[in-house]
Predict the 3D structure of the following.
Amino acid sequence: MAVIYLRSSDGSDASDGLTWANAKATLAAALTAAGVGGTVYMSDAHNESAAGEKTFTSPGTAASPVIILCVDDAGDPEPPTALATTGVVATTDSDLEFAGFAYAYGVTFTAGSGFVFAGMHFQSSSPWWWRLDSCKLRLPSTFGGNQLKIGGSNGDDDKLLELHNTTIEFGEAGQGIAAGADFVWTGTASAIVSGTLPTTLFQAPPVSYVSSTTLLQGVDLSALGSGKNLILISGGSAYRFVFQDCKLGSSVAVTTGNVAGQGGGQVELINCDSGDTNYRYFKKVYQGEISQETTIVRTGGSTDGTTPISHKFVTTANSKFYSPLVGPWVTFWAETPGAFTIEAETVTDNVTLTDAEAWIEVEYPGTSGFPLGLFANDRAADILATPANQTSSSVAWTTTGLTTPVKQTLSKAITTAEKGVLRARVCVAKASTTVYVDLLRLASSGRQFMVAPGTYMNEAGSGFGGERRWILGPH
Amino acid sequence: MSISNSTIVEDRVQVDGRRHVRERHTDHLAATHDVPYMAEAGANATTTMNNRVASIEAQLKQNEIDANLAKALNGETGTFTFQHSTAGENLTALCDMYKLLTKWELITVAHVLHHQNLTNQQITNNFGFSGAAIQTFLNKLATNDTRYHDILAEQSI
């Protein structure tokens, strides 16, 4: 483990790197010298460029990664006292390769220039982790095949790229990100640098990659607008994308392509929009799609306080009794154990749903002494049971555009054994059908939440300022 | 091998004036490819749809090539499909992948390439070999093909 100073203007890889006066000249040499758990201080004037491929294999481990910090070197402070964001590491005509375990702050990584094959690859057959904070990833080459690749063949567990406050720049519309290992991107304004924009941001990973999860949270993707696609759902892939609290471009398509199977790609977009909303939702799986709806809504139904909202379920031909299109969990806090009836209102255009085609599913604390959840639903008893129509409803809906609205109620009575969280969701198993679902599920509950996975603070029955509890969101 | 028809199957106004739009692109196999998005109030959905056709065709091609490459990694030689891509495009992709493989994957794909009966010109185009290097390369493919079958035999597969 060593503290290494890195400055291209006067450094030399022949130097020991232990002071600014004896700084290393290249990041690769600095990484090697730093060793397991070492630190590399990169001068804010560092500007390293090489013609050939550059490989940065951090000698760090999961427990002791190498720390790379771009710093203000004015006065050659040892150690430095201020971070900077102007260090540059570049190639002119080849790839940048990353492996090992490292954290980097304030570095601009540039792969290629002109028309050259020069991608940026975070990949290895061994475990790796890189977290880039306040960095820039640039692929300015005009060759369309260049990608930011995340992954690596041969057992892709224990591999993760994290970007925070880190932008990405592309040089040709065919370029994009190929996420074949886990990828987390958070807290980035103007995340896609304007100029040349990719037609499809997340592209199909190389075939030798395995499944992965991509999470974007608080990322401004508004540069990608009409005619652009955020995610290509590639055949046979098993990649899960979750976009949460992101800014989108106007008229951007979230997905293109078809999901190949039940275990194929999954996309969920939670509260991401180009406009000033807080309810936009989109889910795409093999069985269909779910999106928010603000015209066909139940009178007195769910709302964000201003705008009435329902969810529109559009099933594919692949939604079945044993593999339905499943809506998001809506979560309740039940303070007092007892009997509850959970309901969901639906409307279709001249489709009367049976209990084998649509139902409500409830998970509830029905076991004393343990947090073991119980499940209940109003579905037909089994796949061989004779279906019965779900209950007709007379609640009012705005049904603009529906020729023959058919309103029904999905309902299930349960009895909780302990206070805690109840969750309910609607399942639609009728193929190639559109069903509008009101999200307000439990008339006796004052507060309901559609929440993403995680830990949440929930106000109990007394409302804001009242008693509070921590709850765990569903996965 | 292209999108033969594109239509807007949904264009429905939301409360804020934006519209739920769903493009449906149908390919020459009658398979449909939907693209749903939220259009701005005055956006021309037809223009957007027409402009998207090229990227969907490119995606269909890449998907098929990827699927074929996955089969190659599994050692399959006779199950490739060429509905959205050409044999030449797949061969190029296969050769590109071969250059990056290691160990068992390399042996497996060498087995697949060996059974493609590559011409000298194809080897030159895809690997840059010429002259005697072509035969050397073919010999390596044959050697790895033998290894592939030997390994399977050892495993009684």
Q: What stands out?
A: The first helix of chain A runs from residue 27 to 34.
